[in-house]
Amino acid sequence: MEQNTDSIAACQNHFFKLVGWNPFSQYQNFNQAARDILDIKTNTGVSFSSNNQIYDYFKSQYILSLSPQLSACVSYLSSSLPISPFQNAFKIKNLKSATLPAPLSRDLLAEDSSLKQTNPYSILKVLNYRSWDQAIVYDNFCSSETYSSIRSKANYLLSVKAYLEIKTIAGLYINQFNKDSQLKINWVSVSNKKRSLYAVAQYAINKNKWSSACTFVANSGLIGLNGIYHINGGINDLFLQPNTEKPRKSLYTVGCEIYYCLKDSGGGLSIGLKSTSTIPERFSEKTLIVNPLMGYLTLSYCQQVARNLIGATRIDYNYYNYLSEMSVGFEYWGQLKPYENNQPLTPPRDSNFIDLFYDYIVKFSFSALNPQSKQLYSSSLQFDRQFGSIIVSLGCSILFSAKHCKHQNNQEMILDSNSSITTDKDHINSIIQSNFNKSNYHETSQYNNDTFWTGILPIVDKLSLQIQFYL
Fold first, then answer.
1. What is the pLDDT of residues 404-420, one digit of tens each?
2. Could you list the residue ranges forming a coiled coil in this record (predicted)?
3. Domain annotation covers residue 420
4. Are 84 and 105 in contact (CB under 8 A)?
5. Number of domains into which the chain is organized
């Protein structure tokens, strides 16, 4: 049911832009660049969505899934600031003049640096907001008097999602006190459970040199405290104005997280190191995350190979049981419509519908899983393409399971394979778990001595088709 590209989440990121909040500076997003490329969300079935963009302070999203079973999801969002991130040719080509409108309604069109990667009127660019796009925030908004006055005041954002089939409601409330402090509350209510309310509260502080957050999970009594510190500068030093003479440099960051569960009387510790470089068209991020108590170690590397091509790799290792997983992937931005000028504020000329074919995105990831598991490899492919105000997404996930055979008394061979299926409840659980940066490993499966490996069996796990309308 959950979409790969969610317009409600895109509106939330746009809200962060307006208030000057950098969500990637928190420890739970320490290796977000590699996760954006390698963790491809592939759903099952055919779904349609309608995204209403008529009102600036209120947004709505309606999702209807036709297969494998009929289900629906309704989402609403309200904010104290006007949020209009989805600018496209259908909305602006009939403007009487090409002068710069009010910044609150047309700020995305002022992102000159976005021309290097994608069409300035692309909805896909807004939906797929990446950590290496942070330069856009500082290059265009930091010197604006209008945004300075906004960021000195308190603002709020409230969103609600209702999953009709499983009778579940999920909500998000953000109270932005100023550009440096934020209170965020996630909650989920499930109707068929006794303790139906799950809530996660987080208070975070973002500074140029450091950031910190305190998280509390109501049901389990989980308390977490994390923070990061930039060793050789501030986060704003990476995103300078293009006309400045000071060269850009790599930023070295150290982070730590401590969490303790009151209900289970158990805790954990996570330590991270990161190097980030935002050289024009050569973004790179190297991260190391260690959980010494559980024995988890994660190495990730994200590199911009070309202007529109970014690759990533990640290795998960447990030094207690010597199990490891490796993932590689890439994300490519293609352009179907050439740029006609260098002024993003100039509306496109009147033309046929074929000229409104904008950008497309191709994402691919391949993972070598736990060798003791029945699932040896997994592969995901996603293709998104924009047709004017319509986005079509195709997704496919393939599992390569180990083919094991076992001798019986009658000498017959029995095939033993396994496949995983993701349900909507996985999204509900991820809301609670996403606030803590912990590595996930696949469960192992042991075999008897009379079982032996005979080959690899590919299984198509998921196929999805999503059509999104932006009205």
1. 555 544 433 333 333 33
2. none
3. yes
4. yes
5. 1
175 falls within a domain: yes
Tokens linked to 67? 């297969």
Q: What is the pTM of this model?
A: 0.77
Give the chain as a 3 state SS string. CCCCCCHHHHHHHHHHHHHCCCHHHCHHHCCHHHHHHHCCCCCCEEEEEEEECCCCCEEEEEEEECCCCCEEEEEEEEECCCCCCCCCHHHHCCCCCCCCCCHHHHHHHHCHHHHHCCCCCCHHHHHCCCHHHHHHHHHHHCCCHHHHHHHCCCEEEEEEEEECCCCEEEEEEEEEEECCEEEEEEEEEECCCCCCEEEEEEEEEECCCEEEEEEEECCCCEEEEEEEEECCCCHHHHCCCCCCCCCCCCEEEEEEEEEEECCCCEEEEEEEEEEEEEECCEEEEEEEEEECCCCEEEEEEEEECCCCEEEEEEEEEECCCCEEEEEEEEEEEEECCCCCCCCCCCCCCCCCHHHHEEEEEEEEEEEECCCCCCEEEEEEEEEEEEECCEEEEEEEEEEEEEEEEEECCCCCEEEECCCCCCCHHHHHHHHHHCCCCCCCCCCCCCCCCCEEEEEEEEEEEEEEEEEEEEC
Does 306 fall in a domain? yes
Tens place of pLDDT for every residue, the chain, 471 residues? 555 567 888 888 888 888 888 888 899 999 999 999 999 888 888 999 998 877 778 889 999 998 888 889 999 999 988 887 675 444 444 333 333 334 444 444 444 334 344 455 578 887 887 777 654 444 444 445 556 666 677 899 999 999 988 889 999 999 999 888 999 999 998 887 676 788 999 999 999 889 999 999 988 889 999 999 999 887 776 655 444 555 557 889 999 999 999 888 888 899 999 998 877 678 899 999 999 988 899 999 999 988 889 999 999 999 888 888 999 999 998 876 544 444 444 444 444 444 455 678 999 999 987 766 667 888 999 999 988 788 999 999 998 876 655 554 443 333 333 333 333 445 445 544 544 444 443 333 444 445 555 567 778 888 999 999 887
- Could you tell me the CATH number of the domain that includes residue 236? 2.40.160.10
Domain-embedded: residue 1: no
Q: Is 141 exposed, middle or buried (0-12, 13-18, 19+ CB in 10 A)?
A: buried
**Residue 78 one-letter amino acid:** S
Domain region containing 221: 7-432+441-470
* Phi, then psi, of 300 in degrees rounded to 5: -140, 150
